[in-house]
Fold this sequence. Notes:
Layout: H1 11-31, H2 37-53, H3 58-70, H4 73-91, H5 94-104, H6 111-126, H7 129-146, H8 151-168, H9 173-182, H10 186-211, H11 221-232, H12 242-252, H13 257-275, H14 280-289, H15 298-304, H16 313-331, H17 334-340, H18 349-367, H19 370-387, H20 392-404, H21 414-423, H22 427-430, H23 435-450
Helix pairs in contact: 1-2, 1-17, 2-16, 3-16, 4-9, 4-13, 5-6, 5-11, 6-7, 6-8, 6-10, 7-8, 7-15, 7-21, 8-10, 9-10, 9-19, 9-20, 10-20, 10-23, 12-13, 16-19, 18-19, 18-20, 18-23, 19-20, 20-23
Amino acid sequence: MNQQQYVKPHLFEALLLMLSIIAIISYSIIQLESVPHIPILLAITLLIFYGVIKKIPYKKMEQSMTRAVTSSIGAIYIFLLIGVLISSWLIGGTIPTLLYIGLSFVSASFFYAIAFIITSIIGTAIGSSLTTVATVGVAMLGVASSIDASLVITAGAIVSGAFFGDKMSPLSDTTNLAASVVGIDLFTHIRNMMYTTIPAFMIALIGYALLSPSVDTIDTALIATYQETLRATNLIHWYSVLPLVVLIFCTALKVPSLATLAISAISGIVLSYFHSTIPLNELFAILYNGYSMETGVAAIDSLLSRGGMNSMLFTIILIVLSLSMGGLLFALGIIQTLLEALQRQLKSVGSVITGAAFTAIGINLTIGEQYLSILLTGEAFKGKFKQHKLHPKNLARTIEDAGTVINPLVPWSVCGLFIASTLNVSVLEYLPFAFFCLLSPVMTILFGWLNITITKQAQ
Length: 459
């Protein structure tokens, strides 16, 4: 976000405005249970009012918002294409087949580790942590009950796996958002995240394996019911995994994100005609509105009824509003003033990465919104990372490691509230066992101080 600064506020003014914005958004989301859009719009109004008091022409503030939104147009196209991709993967059988395969690996031995792996696979395949929790997660909790395993540890494993997928999937809106905010290619971002993500994943996996109960038998009735329901949809076929193979292949060849998503979506649409014939007008409706399935099993219906361009509008509107607010924060000099106050503490690479990580964590704790933790931290620290000649992909990795995966650990956050109500396990109960989510920010800060896998900006 290359913004012109029109005023230099006093530190007290900048702090007061930022705390007011945090209070408005926090109160609205936590107490009023509002979606973040309306409080962000109120915050934008407050900032415009401050700008008017400072005698900044409204046209200049409007231009600042417009420039900020324009910088996200690439991400908006990607989000729309992701909606299409999810629909195509549903009608092509890719998502149902991956779920079926995942459920086949459930066993009592190393149960927590298996729950972690399965939710990681499904989360990566569908790119939605909350959908993974609400579907596969609910199934895993049912299995845990049947073998008398700890529901709290199981919930921790489910959350860890789901947010591993949310963090690493090219279909995830947070992953795309982090890449677009700092201006790097989606798959460059995903490859760079592996350096901190894989160690965190392996440590978490070992932890779940050690904690897993020693049980020789398992009641597979619930799993069998889910698999039978999936088979009855006529969407389970060996060839249905080909769109995922295509996605991985294009990623390996470093094909641009938009082209990769389009090719994989087309392959899913083509495969759908191998097991059903969808009229063109109905196909277009599915690609826009999403796919819908009624099997009689709520968990399966929830997984198979999603996707479409329309499903991305909530996120796209939030991005437009958040970036508009970010544009105003920069144009009014609020972010710059606050960052200048931290100059003495941010002199080394390690301190800069730590500062970005704690900013993302702090926004999650105060506002409870993961999108804002990514957007605001990314915009605020772009200049600082550039000053230290750090490649933008370091910033993208940091805000994902400390932004995306922290949100489910905050009891009053959007994700925390959803997960607690869905799994019927409180955030504070599963928090100590969400190993991957706890380890991710630790790894990114540690790697920053040790200068491990830190890429410098090319001259």
